[in-house]
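Saturday, quiet lab. Running sequence design on the C-alpha cells for the scaffold JK sent over.
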C-alpha cells in the first residue's frame, strides 16, 4: 500500500533508527549543551559510543540542540571535542564550517523545510546502490520504476544504473548509458523519489518543494500533483505524444562560474545561437544553444578567467532548440491526471508558487508547457521560498549542486541551513546521515516517546498551502 506516492506505510508506527551513529542532545542553554556533551566525549574517548537510535522528543523539542554524525567512538570523540570548542567560542561561522564534518547546531522552534529536486547533470553510475541494498523503501521505489520503464527501455532501469564498480568496462558502459536522456531523466527522478520516501520514514516531509529543470517533476510528484508513473513517462520522453521527438542530440550546455552580469556581458560578444539557459545562483549560470556557438562562448569565458564546464546532456534544454517539444508535452499533460499541489510548490520557470484555486490546472499546464524551453529561474525560486518562510533547504537527489546554489543565494542569512542527501564522494550512508543530523539539529524529524512514534510534519494531504496563496498574489542543468 502506498501513501500519496511516498511509499509504504509500514514504518509509520515505529521510530526509525538512523543509518549510522547519530548523537542528538538538547538543553535549555548553550552551557547546558556543553554539560551534556562532555561526558559523551569522555565515554567516546574510552571506546564507547551509543548505537544508532531515533532521537527522543525531549531532544528535538529543546530550545538548544546539537546533532553529530559518527561512524565509531573515535569519530564521536573527535567531533564532540570540536563541538565543545565551538560552544565555548560562540562563533556562528565555526558552526557553519563544522557542517561538512556532520556537526550541526540548532535553536528555537523547528523551521519550515523546502525540498529541492535536482535534474539531469547530477547523475552518476551506481547512484543510490548502497541504499538500494540496505533500505526496502529505496529498493521498492526502484522496483516500481523498473516495472514502468522496462517495456520502454528494453530492460529494467536499474540495470542501466547499477553495475560492478570494479569493472572499468561496465562503468564506462553505464556512464555512456547515462548520456541517454530517457535513461538519465528516469534515473534521476527515481533517485529523487526514493530519497523523498526514505526521508518520510524518518518523519521528515517538506513544507515546500521546488525542482531544477527535470526536478520540477520530482517536486510535483512529492507535492501530490503527479503520479510517479506519469512523471516517468514524461521525463523519459516515452509518452506517445513525445516518443517521435526524441532526437540524437540538439545543442550543448555549459556551466559557467561567473556573476550573472559577466555572463550577460560576455555572451554579447558571442556569435551564433547561445543564451542563458539556467540562472542558478549569484555566481553560476548555464549557457545553452547550438554546439558551435556554445563552444565559442565557452572559450570566451575561459579566456576571461572563468571556469566553464560542459554538462553531460545531449540537448540544449531551456532554449529555443527544444521548442518542438512544447506542444506535444502540452498534449501529454492534458491527457494525464494532473492536480494542484497539496504541498506549496514553486516553479523554476518564473519563481512563483503554483496556483491552488479553481483556475490552477490550466495555469499549471501553461507553466509546464513553457518549462522545457524556458530559462530556469532558480535564484528567483529560492528567494520565493525564503519569503514564504522556508529556512532549511534540503537537496533531495544525487550530488549537491542545488545545495550549493541555495548556500550561494541565501547563505548570508543567519537562519538558513542548506543540506544535501546524497553524494558519491561521501557515500550514501554518510551523506544521508549528515542531512538527518542537520534536520535533527533544526528540530525536525521522527521522535520517540516511550516507544510511540510521532510525526513532526503532516502528510502531504494535510498540509494547507496557505503560504502558496500568500506568495502568489553542478551544475544541474536539466
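Result came back. Writing it out in full:
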Amino acid at each position: 500500500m502506498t501513501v500519496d506516492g511516498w511509499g509504504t506505510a509500514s514504518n509509520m508506527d515505529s521510530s526509525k533508527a538512523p543509518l549510522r551513529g547519530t548523537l542528538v542532545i538538547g538543553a535549555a542553554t548553550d552551557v547546558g549543551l556543553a554539560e551534556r556533551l562532555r561526558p559523551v566525549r569522555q565515554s567516546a574517548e574510552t571506546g564507547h559510543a551509543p548505537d544508532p537510535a531515533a532521537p527522543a522528543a525531549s531532544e528535538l523539542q529543546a530550545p538548544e540542540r546539537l546533532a553529530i554524525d559518527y561512524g565509531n567512538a573515535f569519530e564521536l570523540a573527535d567531533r564532540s571535542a570540536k563541538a565543545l570548542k565551538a560552544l565555548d567560542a560562540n562563533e556562528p561561522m565555526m558552526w557553519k564550517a563544522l557542517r561538512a564534518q556532520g556537526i550541526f547546531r540548532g535553536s528555537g522552534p523547528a523551521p519550515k523545510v523546502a525540498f529541492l529536486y535536482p535534474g539531469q547533470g547530477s547523475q552518476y553510475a551506481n547512484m543510490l546502490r548502497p541504499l538500494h541494498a540496505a533500505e526496502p523503501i529505496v529498493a521498492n521505489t526502484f522496483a516500481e520504476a523498473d516495472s514502468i520503464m522496462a517495456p520502454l527501455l528494453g530492460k529494467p532501469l536499474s540495470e542501466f544504473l547499477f553495475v560492478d564498480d570494479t569493472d572499468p568496462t561496465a562503468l564506462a558502459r553505464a556512464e555512456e548509458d547515462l548520456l541517454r536522456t530517457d535513461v538519465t531523466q528516469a534515473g534521476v527522478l527515481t533517485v529523487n523519489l526514493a530519497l523523498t520516501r526514505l526521508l518520510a520514514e524518518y518523519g521528515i516531509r517538506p513544507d515546500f518543494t521546488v525542482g531544477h529543470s527535470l526536478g520540477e517533476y520530482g517536486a510535483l510528484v512529492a507535492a501530490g500533483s503527479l503520479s510517479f508513473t506519469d512523471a516517468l513517462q514524461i521525463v523519459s520522453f516515452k509518452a506517445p505524444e513525445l516518443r517521435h521527438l526524441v532526437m540524437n542530440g540538439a545543442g550543448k550546455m555549459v556551466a559557467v562560474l561567473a556573476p550573472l552580469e559577466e555572463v550577460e556581458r560576455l555572451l554579447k560578444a558571442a556569435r551564433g545561437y547561445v543564451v542563458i539557459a539556467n540562472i542558478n545562483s549569484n555566481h553560476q549560470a548555464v549557457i545553452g544553444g547550438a554546439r558551435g556557438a556554445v563552444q565559442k562562448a565557452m572559450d570566451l569565458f575561459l579566456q576571461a578567467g572563468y571556469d566553464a564546464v560542459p554538462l553531460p546532456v545531449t540537448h540544449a534544454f531551456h532554449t529555443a532548440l527544444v521548442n518542438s517539444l512544447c506542444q506535444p508535452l502540452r498534449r501529454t499533460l492534458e491527457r494525464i491526471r494532473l492536480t494542484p499541489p497539496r504541498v506549496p510548490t514553486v516553479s523554476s520557470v518564473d519563481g512563483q508558487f503554483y496556483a491552488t484555486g479553481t483556475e490552477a490546472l490550466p495555469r499549471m499546464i501553461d507553466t509546464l508547457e513553457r518549462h522545457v524551453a524556458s530559462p530556469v529561474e532558480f535564484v528567483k525560486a529560492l528567494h520565493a521560498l525564503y519569503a514564504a518562510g522556508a529556512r532549511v533547504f534540503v537537496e533531495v537527489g544525487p550530488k549537491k549542486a542545488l545545495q550549493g546554489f541555495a548556500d550561494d543565494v541565501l547563505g548570508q542569512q543567519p537562519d538558513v541551513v542548506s543540506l544535501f542527501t546524497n553524494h558519491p564522494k561521501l557515500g550514501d550512508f554518510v551523506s544521508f546521515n549528515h542531512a538527518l543530523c542537520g534536520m535533527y539539529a533544526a528540530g525536525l524529524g521522527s521522535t520517540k516517546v516511550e516507544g510511540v512514534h510521532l510525526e513532526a510534519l503532516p502528510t502531504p494531504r494535510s498540509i494547507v498551502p496557505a503560504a502558496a496563496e500568500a506568495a502568489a498574489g553542478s551544475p544541474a542543468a536539466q
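Notes for JK: The CA atoms of residues 86 and 94 lie 6 Å apart. The chain has 20 helices and 15 strands. Ask whether to fix the surface positions before the next round.
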